Amino acid sequence: MFRFIVRRLLQLIPTLFGLSILLFIWLHRLPGGPETALLGERGTPESRAQIRESLGLNEPLPIQYGRFVKRLVRLDLGTSISTKRDVTTEFLQRFPGTVELTITAMLIAIGVGIPLGYLAARRRGSFLDQASVGGSLLGTCVPIFFLAYVLKAIFAENLGWFPSIGRQDPSIDATHVTNFFVLDGLMTREWDAAADAIWHLILPGVALASIPLAIIVRITRASVLEVLGEDFVRTAEAKGLTERTVRRRHVLRNAMLPVATSIGLLTGLLLSGAVLTETVFAFSGIGAFIYDAISNLDYPVLMGFIMIIAVIFALVNLLVDVSYSLIDPRVRVR
Amino acid sequence: MTLAPGKKKEKLDRLAELSAVHDDERGVSLWREAMRRLRRNPAAIVGAVILAAFVLVAVIGPFLVPYEPTDTIGVREKVVSSGHGIIPGPSADHWLGYDHQGRDEFSRMVVGARQTLIVGIVSTLIGLTIGVLIGGVAGAAAGLGGRWGRLVDNVLMRIVDMMLSLPSLLLAVSVAALLGPSLVTVMIAVGMVSVPVFARLLRGAMIAQANRDYVLAASSLGVRKSKIAISHIVPNSLAPVIVQATLTLATAIIEVAALSFLGLGNPDSAVPEWGLMLADAQKYLDVRPGLAIYPAVGIIITALGFTLLGEAMREALDPKLRR
To answer: What domain count does chain B have?
Structure first.
């Protein structure tokens, strides 16, 4: 197991090296360039030169790249052009919001998706089955930001059931320790603050959960159907085990393996979706900040955030592989 | 007993051809069997009907629209003023009303169908071409083995891994940010997202095919390895790639909309495209939500058509489900 983890971590190095070069070249070739983004049309040649100097843009590219990697190792990703603050600080401040949002979405997707997929498979051909298959097909076809706008218009603006923007009502004087607002509320025993933060998570969470939910329903259903047809299920039934035991010990346990893999793969989908959902709900996480960085041509932010996300994404995938080998003993043999 | 070299080659080719899996009168080919099952699947029929209607609108619709999609007719007639939030809705003359620049929304939806189809197809083709090239070379190299084969396979797959190391939308954002906003950029950015998917699929399928009996038969008959790869393994590995391409058409259309939403779409909104229309409409949601709903419904239905057909094809081509 240890060797497996080390090998996977080593495989990460060439990927990250290549990615850093690509990102470096890509983001430096931004149309307009950072000095235009900073000064707009009014910039004088002198002020442009000054900014190029201060950002180190006048050095040859290999030297800039060398500096970039050196800074990368020290986790110094430069300063945001628009907020003038450290990129790493910006990331750390906003990341908890995105984590809370993706966890909410994942809980919704798993909590609804697995039971729904399981029931659909057990009652194959029923109305529930057809509705969940149809719904999951439709779910993958709705542009997520459109769904977010629709949810916001109906449940926040018209019915007023949920707040329409932000992570927490600013009128609540909440103490923030970790920037995980829900966790902060629980830790400091400010129950109203925690409840309000959860309340703010629901609509964006539902919007973000739509595609993972659709995928989990489909995979669970297909996987349960496959396992139900297996010989070992028939054997278990034949030797007189109760239906409950067969369902729990034999069907569900085996059917969950493909679902577990897919849940890991959904992380990327969630991070992509977070950019869109957070923007619609003005939810201050990394996604909304990436949107701002795009409109401001804030290249240190774009570059730094994308790099950190790639590392996190890779680590999550590693974690999934490891946990997968814990669930399924057959994987460990290889 | 020795044969003349030319004759020997001819004989070998013929034998190899006989040994390969291909259509003949007695057996039912994979594709013919798949077609038969597609026709019996209601989901496939619904998908095909949706797509036929979409393609029909895209091809002939632009010749039949009542107004030029670029004509800011509402501004000229002084009935539209986006600055003051005045955008009239549907009327007898303008079935879906005006858009925010006073253009006829119905005409833009119809002409937009063509543009949406073109953008979807071109970006999928970009991803398909590059992905199949990378996957095909890697799959062939892995099959050939040897030091060089493994090296080529390894290098290509590390490049693919690199592309997979970013969430899809962020990869598209990176590409779009590099190339600057334009229609071509959007198509390349959306295409790049599907490159690793196609490459991995084809390589995986080729490696699986390389162990099949007909490959062993062909190689024991002395057919060159490169010929086996190109004329036997690749055609037999294409089924999952074609299914994926159909499904990718759906995601491509949605991803174009997402890029436009992030401000990385085509900066020229004169030529209508549903994703761009949907992204533009978000500023006028309070005034005229219809401007967002029409293109959104168009995108959802079209994506559903491609998804239904793609999923049905996947089922039809799945050997496990063949009877």
So the answer is: 1
Average pLDDT along chain A:
80
Query: Does residue B198 form part of some domain?
Result: yes
Number of continuous H segments (helices) and E segments (strands) in chain A:
15, 0
**Residue B271 contacts A where some CB pair is shorter than 8 Å:** no
Task: Return the residue of B nearest to A308 by Cα.
Answer: B166
- Residue B49 domain flag: yes
Indicate the Cα dihedral angle A283, B185, B124, B296, nearest 10°.
40
Burial label, B119 (beta-carbon count in 10 A; 0-12, 13-18, 19+): buried
- The distance of Cα B271 from the centroid of its chain, to the nearest Å, equals 21
The verdict on a CB contact (< 8 Å) between A275 and B262 is yes
CA distance B170 to B167: 5
Domain membership flag for residue B75: no
User: Which amino acid is residue B79, in one-letter code?
Assistant: V
Residue B32 lies in a domain: no
- Closest residue in A to B274 (Cα) is A143
Residues in chain A: 334
Give the pLDDT score at B52.
Answer: 92
Q: What is the pLDDT of residue A330?
A: 66
- Domain extent for B125: 40-59+97-321
pLDDT interval class at A333 (50, 70, 90): very low
Max distance between CA atoms of chain B, in angstroms, equals 94
B140/A contact by beta carbon, under 8 A = no
- Judged by average pLDDT, the poorest of A127-136, A172-181, B217-226 is A172-181
Q: What is the CATH number of the domain that holds B146?
A: 1.10.3720.10
Q: What is the ipTM of this complex?
A: 0.81
The model's pLDDT over A208-230, given as tens digits with 9 standing for 90+, comes to: 999 999 999 988 998 888 888 88
CA distances B278 to A136, A157, B142, B172, Å, are 22, 20, 44, 19
Distance in Å, alpha carbon of A60 to nearest chain B alpha carbon: 19
Q: Is B296 on the interface with A (CB under 8 A)?
A: yes
Alpha helix (H) residue ranges in A29-165: 33-39, 45-55, 61-73, 87-122, 127-141, 144-151
End-to-end alpha-carbon separation of chain A, Å?
A: 11
For residue B292, give the nearest of A141, A149, A290 by CB distance: A149
